[in-house]
Design brief:
Shape: globular
Structural class: mainly beta
Pfam families: PglD_N
Distance between the termini: 53 Å
Strand content: 25-35%
Protein name: Hexapeptide transferase
Strand order of the largest sheet: 7-10-13-16-19-22-24-25
Keywords: Transferase
Bound molecules: acetyl coenzyme *A
Number of strands: 25
Number of helices: 2
GO molecular function, one term: transferase activity
């Protein structure tokens, strides 16, 4: 069993996860990535040890991959791993907030009272989730998003950078909200919406 934390994924998102874990005082012992050309390299000075099959040796790990589908697949394939939370010391999280295992919250993010955040979510840099939010598993809320009170984001949804959501809205499962959109009506499952007000993207 490897001591310290393993990080799965060797891309840009992994750099921010490693930086966040180190800011918490955690020791990150290795990075895992299935792209074999990265093995033997480093990410922020942390060695890339091999592929995700090495998770079998992990005690604690975080999945640092932006794709919501890929995080779900890896988490489901490795139920024995202790998925830890990575919460930057300069994120502000109300004590009443519930955070699921494997979820990461980056610097400058604010999560207000009685919000529930599921497993393997990403609350990215300087995003805010206001009171009574319900964020389900495998959601990614990108940098600078602002969710007003009582917003629900269902499993696997992705909110692009700078999204705004008015109070009480629901974002459907595995939906995508384009960068800079303003959500003023509920969004159905498996939809891509863009713009202000956000509307389903029309394809030519
Ligand atoms: C730290 C980090 O980096 S975290 C990562 C954060 N990432 C993001 O925020 C990315 C968000 N992604 C987007 O907004 C994307 O543009 C998506 C998902 C909405 C659409 O992506 P694609 O399917 O590749 O769309 P594509 O680029 O082909 O554009 C298709 C059309 O939609 C329009 N469009 C794309 N994105 C948007 C948007 N956010 N708002 C308004 N219109 C948009 C394009 O202008 C284009 O219109 P046209 O056909 O009239 O020229």
């Amino acid at each position: 069993m490897t001591s310290g934390v393993l990080v799965v994924g060797a891309g840009g998102h992994a750099k921010v996860v490693i930086d966040t874990l180190q800011a918490m005082g955690q020791t990150v012992t290795g990075v895992l990535d299935d792209r074999s050309h990265l093995w033997g390299g480093t990410v922020l000075g942390v060695p890339v040890l091999g592929g995700s099959d090495l998770l079998g040796q992990a005690k604690q790990a975080v999945i640092a991959i932006g794709s919501n589908q890929v995080r779900q697949k890896i988490a489901q394939a490795h139920p024995h791993v202790e998925w830890i939370r990575a919460v930057h010391p300069r994120a502000q999280i109300s004590p009443s907030v519930q955070l699921g295992p494997g979820t990461v919250v980056f610097a400058g993010a604010v999560v207000q009272p009685d919000t529930q955040i599921g497993s393997h979510c990403i609350i990215n840099t300087a995003a805010s989730v206001d009171h009574d939010g319900k964020i389900e598993d495998f959601v990614h809320i990108a940098p600078g998003c602002h969710l007003a009170g009582n917003v629900s984001v269902l499993e696997g949804a992705f909110l692009g950078v700078g999204t705004c959501v008015i109070p009480g809205m629901s974002i459907g499962a595995w939906s995508t909200v384009g960068a800079g959109a303003t959500v003023v009506r509920p969004v159905a499952d498996h939809l891509i919406v863009v713009g202000t007000p956000a509307r389903p993207r029309t394809t030519p």
